[in-house]
Amino acid sequence: MLPPQLWILFFSGIIATLGGVLDWRFHRYVLKMQLSQKERDAEAQALGLGGLPMFALMWGAMLSDYPSPYLIPILVVLIYTVVLICYDEFVFHRKRCGKKENLYHRMLVFGNGIAWLAWFHLIYG
């Protein structure tokens, strides 16, 4: 039987992925929106300097017999990533987005957050 954290991770990951895909399609096909270079750079930083290192650290912690040394770097990258996401949301999306787009953003952000917390509890709980 799978631990409940994996089920939570699975379903919240699906919600986050669905939110991301719906948001992308909404931007691309409904709004026909082009992002400014500043917004594109902010989102690339969040992914490249936040998401990718987080993935590598989480992978290392999962494969390690002793995941404790990964804890502080994971938390540092988490805080940095949250700051970048908040910057993107408050600077570029706050006034521009309607209810539908905000719903997609919430699905993406909260789905990822819940998935991360479930993973964290599985590894360190």
Automatic annotation (TrEMBL):
Keywords: Membrane, Transmembrane, Transmembrane helix. It comes from the Bacteria. The chain crosses the membrane at residues 6-26, 46-64, 70-91, 103-124. This is Uncharacterized protein. It comes from Rhodocytophaga rosea.
